[in-house]
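Case study 2.
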Amino acid sequence: MNETQLTITVIGAGNGGKAMAADLAAKGFAVRLYNRTFANIETVALRKGIALHTEDGHEVFGPLEIVTSDIEMALDGADLIMVVIPASGHRDVALAASPFLQDNQIVVLNPGRTGGALEFAQGLLEGNCPCRPTICEAETFLFASRSLGPAEARIFRTKYSVPVAAFPTQRTQAAIATIQTAYPQFIPAKSVLHTSMNNMGAIFHPGLTLLNAGWIEATQGDFEFYMDGVTPSTSRVLEALDRERVTVASSLGIRVQTAQEWLYRAYAAEGESLHEAMHANPGYRGIKAPNRLKHRYLFEEIPCSLVPITELGKQYGVETPTMCTLIHLANIVHAIDYRTKGRTLKRLGIQGLTVQELRRYIDTGERS
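Prediction:
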């Protein structure tokens, strides 16, 4: 399949969705943009595209084939479906898309956070989807990007590589061949267990948001999140979170990268400590903090990253006190019980599985 033949649907018109849709369209792909609320994409529809400020300082225009809030129209005939929304909406997208997806389509969750592909698959089951599209999970989002206006976006930095795995694992190589037509930066991961447990958003986003909560509310986020918000003390909390994540992954029989290793691979950022490595990353410079605490760094990362990691830890005998503390604080701040509303193992369809049964399910898509 060559570039002129590939039709790509981007689901979501936030910071990442607009940036990815514009980037793909500017490269010559046939791109559709879907958002469930048309008012949020009305200006894009009127302009028939999105202006994109690239990381090298240029401005390009990405012309879009379709801009719609009709999911059937957005999905019909698409080869590749890039889901670029907070992970807390993955199940809703799966349910809405269930009647219209096709066997030969590839759905990529950008990113899946922890358990995204499993939750999406369960959503398709609940939605009585008649087909079995390939569901892929990206380890992280390809860009550091922001929306600059109703039909304008900016890419600060593009990662050198982003691992992607399919569920079931046996479909990964075929999916990667298509995905790399659009983005050669996407490389095959061993499984969705690896992409889920290499979830760096779980480490960087909720911890920094909660530890800087007072500053965020006082300034409406008017400071550099990954520079000013990353101090020696906050970095030590992130390191504690990271150790818990790595240990839970080990209980599943897999080795994942530390946060420092990931920063080097994704951005070539080096340092003797996590604090130094984050400050050495040029891709983080200029990115402001959230302007409020009702932000996806909490309402996405707590239920879709920390909750499933702690549940996996509990099922396989690993304590996660730092993560549990952040979940408790977020519950208070948002007056929500993320333990019940998040990605529980029951919701992912893996409650009670042994490690061997879990790995078999991940690889084949079949339960024993």
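The two ends are 36 Å apart (CA to CA).
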